[in-house]
Design brief:
The protein is an alpha+beta fold. The chain contains six helices and 18 strands. A hairpin with a 2-residue loop joins β6 and β7. α3 runs antiparallel to α5. This is PhzF family phenazine biosynthesis protein.
Length: about 280
């Protein structure tokens, strides 16, 4: 069955006025999950967000890649909040996503839409040594000392010495997918200190969810902020020529506040997609 609906591309977590992760945002309807999974490929994005306005004034979000539904998506939340603010002129809402209810905000800061919300709580633990070894082999690094971190789903945080080592990564994606699948991880968030106080570079590899490399991954940035117990700024997407920036800071009760700037793309298109 082919479906048609208005789809807006939002560039989430931009760096200045450029880059960001292109995200398809669509009003939810009577779609099946196979139809929802088909939208990212049709729209030419890695992720799609389906938005449902509820009678109580809250907005419900569901997140999909071509591989299936995600319980949470940070840059997808940034995209949805920015588009909702752009269209309604309001700046605060209750958001329902992944079984959670939380406050989302979006402010116009000098002509830029800056969205923020509370993610979390973040869980942290040590990985199984077999997972560590398999991921190191897939990444082509030497020994690593990662942590497993979770918001919705778990991922591996892998520290590297510097941003040169980060830029040089050329993972074996098939091997990385097998390692992540075996451990129940959605992917691998590699990170390194960058120039500037509390600033880091990062790359997110998530072949297990159909995204070899993500231009921006806000939830993984939140996981890193929880791991470091510090407010941080993370630059991503340079390897994809989509420079992106995400901020994150620990908040009360184990939560983390995520922030990102978004740019609304060209006029929305009515797309027809087939599962």
């Amino acid at each position: 069955m082919t479906r048609g609906n208005e789809v807006q591309i939002v560039h989430a977590c931009t760096r200045g006025d450029t880059g960001g992760s292109p995200t398809a945002v669509c009003a939810d309807g009577d779609y099946g999950d196979e139809q929802r999974r088909a939208l990212p490929g049709t729209a030419g994005t890695s992720h799609a967000v389906f938005v449902r306005e509820r009678a109580d004034g809250s907005i419900g979000l569901r997140f999909f890649t071509a591989a299936g539904e995600l319980p949470a998506c940070g840059h997808g939340t940034v995209a949805a909040l920015a588009l909702h603010a752009h269209r309604t002129g309001t700046s605060r809402w209750r958001v329902r996503a992944g079984g959670r209810v939380f406050e989302g905000r979006c402010e116009n800061e000098h002509g830029r839409l800056h969205a923020s919300f509370h993610a979390g709580p973040v869980t942290l633990r040590d990985p199984d040594p077999r997972t560590t070894a398999a991921v190191a082999a897939a990444l082509g690094t030497g020994p690593i000392r990662p942590r497993v971190a979770g918001i919705g789903r778990e991922r591996l945080l892998v520290p590297l010495d510097d941003t040169d080592a980060l830029a040089a990564l050329a993972p074996d994606f098939d091997a990385l997918r097998r390692a992540c699948d075996a451990a129940g991880l959605l992917g691998c968030f590699t990170w390194a200190p960058a120039k500037g106080q509390s600033r880091y570079g990062a790359r997110m590899f998530a072949p297990s969810i159909g995204v070899p490399e993500d231009a921006a991954n806000a939830n993984s940035t939140a996981c890193l902020a929880a791991h470091l117990d510090a407010a941080i700024t993370v630059d991503m997407g340079d390897a994809l020529a989509r420079p992106s920036t995400v901020t994150a800071a620990p908040a009360p009760h184990g939560a983390v506040r995520i922030g990102g700037t978004a740019r609304i793309g060209d006029a929305p298109a009515t797309l027809r997609w087939r599962p």
